[in-house]
Write a structure and sequence with these properties.
The structure is a homodimer. Chain A is of the alpha+beta class. Chain A folds into two domains: 8-143, Jelly Rolls, CATH 2.60.120; 158-237, Arc Repressor Mutant, subunit A, CATH 1.10.10. Chain A is 39% helix and 25% strand. The first copy, chain A, is built from eight helices and twelve strands. The longest helix of chain A is centred in the middle third of the chain and has 27 residues, at 131-157. The N and C termini of chain A lie far apart (40 Å). The A-B interface holds A 74, 76, 78-80, 82-84, 86-87, 97-100, 104-105, 131, 134-135, 137-139, 141-142, 144-146, 148-153, 155-158, 196-197, 237-238 and B 74, 76, 78-80, 82-84, 86-87, 97-100, 104-105, 131, 134-135, 137-139, 141-142, 144-146, 148-153, 155-158, 196-197, 237-238. Chain A binds a DNA duplex through helix 7. Chains A, B: Residues 158-230 form the HTH crp-type domain.
Chain lengths: 238, 238
DNA sequence: ATTGCGATTTGATCCAGATCAAATCTCCGT
DNA sequence: ACGGAGATTTGATCTGGATCAAATCGCAAT
């Protein structure tokens, strides 16, 4: 854990998990008041800056988290440096791979974020004890699997323009604004490229192409508006 | 269900699921004797030919299965015909997407196969009733998620030669022979292309390239031997 | 305001893999 | 054995996206 780039807000009190529960964190939302209090005593709330590595690829899975604010990217890197983002997670998702010792991917805050961290052993014990927690984590795993497979279609069979449009559509769907026609990109151009299996140059060219076609407006480098969401959707062949 | 291309072996007796249990089917392996008997009374064993569609994309999820023999491919197709295989499943995997009404992908037998089919409602009730079944399906979902993410790296960032080598490596790992240095391809060239996000021509060229390099021998169109598994692994940049 | 540096865009060229086209190979039915 | 049709391989060419190169932008530190 990169302590230098994170700030621990609360340690070792049952207060720690109130925030998760209030936000229906996948873990905390499934626990009884008593369990929540026990979890709270052993958990901590962390504020992490964009870019902070929460889990390192190849490291031991010694803790898990709930995301309470912000966006987390899941990334796999090859020994020669090529890398691929294999998932984006948003509040109130659970982050971690239960029941496996070593992580096969890294998890990194894509934006400034807040997470609620619990020790591995305690969480795994609670999963075994608590039907509702297992059910809730099972449901998240199935949703992530659906998302991963949808993304496999994008990676394998869509063109660069369709890929970029798919990403914008995905981000818009998770944007917190009611209109969701204007949103901040949680990813840099390089991260977008790593998500789409493209280069930054191609991402940039496709964004300017969508802009010239009038499908999006690039208010500034991190902020996009979509005048007509259907026009964007039409760019993604179903 | 494409009944024309399948053969129902046993219907409506508690015998039906013995085969799943003996093979440690993900579902049947998690049930008590009493539950197994109830499941057996409502399940049926089917023999399906290669190419038989088990679940159609967009259809209602009205039943689930255990694979007891053979290989099943999970496939997504776009309206313009482009398609992507998003998963391969082997015995004793469970096939289906619990808790979702409509299937977002199709499942098709890649080889001749046998599956044990249960009705949706019964299985979902048993999941809610039975810790061990939920645990077991949760574990499979997590494993499929790991596999899907590994494959996203392959789709997004590996070259055609690395992709083909990755596929051969994957198949070899699931081959049932003890040596696993010689195996049958469960997929045609077209299916391999759809799994790797390539065209059949590129798949064919990469296979002959690997053959000319001495990494594989193509005994016949569906049968490969790998003289030195490490040489194959070296073709896949980690 | 000015400098400096990383992020982004834009331009020029290249190339891995797609596309188009044609042989071969397999295997099934007669 | 003989057709014949689909599957596979091989060849020729094209092209979308990569790579190499150079502005330009954004913004934090001075």
């Amino acid at each position: 854990m990169d302590v230098a780039r994170s700030e621990v807000l609360v340690i070792g009190t049952s207060v720690a998990c109130r925030s998760c529960q209030a936000r229906h964190g996948v873990v905390c939302g499934a626990l009884s008041a008593g369990q929540l209090s026990e979890l709270g005593r052993h958990s901590l709330r962390r504020k992490v800056d964009a870019g902070c590595e929460i889990i390192a690829q190849g490291s031991e899975n010694s803790f898990y988290s709930n995301i309470t604010r912000g966006v987390v990217k899941l990334c796999k890197v090859m020994s020669d440096g090529r890398q691929q983002i294999v998932g984006l997670q948003f509040a109130p998702d659970f982050v971690g791979r239960p029941f496996v010792r070593e992580s096969t991917l890294s998890a990194e805050a894509a934006t400034d974020a807040e997470i609620c961290v619990f020790p591995r052993n305690l969480l795994e014990r609670m999963i075994l004890e608590t039907r509702e927690l297992q059910r809730s984590l099972h449901a998240q795993a199935l949703n992530e699997l659906d998302a991963a497979r949808e993304w496999m279609l994008t990676l394998g069979r869509r063109t660069a323009e369709e890929k970029v449009a798919s990403l914008l559509h995905l981000i818009a769907a998770h944007a917190e604004t009611a209109t969701s026609t204007a949103f901040d990109l949680p990813l840099s151009r390089a991260e977008i490229a790593d998500f789409l299996g493209l280069t930054i140059e191609t991402v940039s060219r496709q964004l300017t192409r969508l802009r010239k076609e009038g499908v999006i407006r690039i208010e500034n480098i991190r902020h996009i508006t979509v005048p007509d969401m259907d026009a964007l959707a039409k760019k993604i062949s179903g």
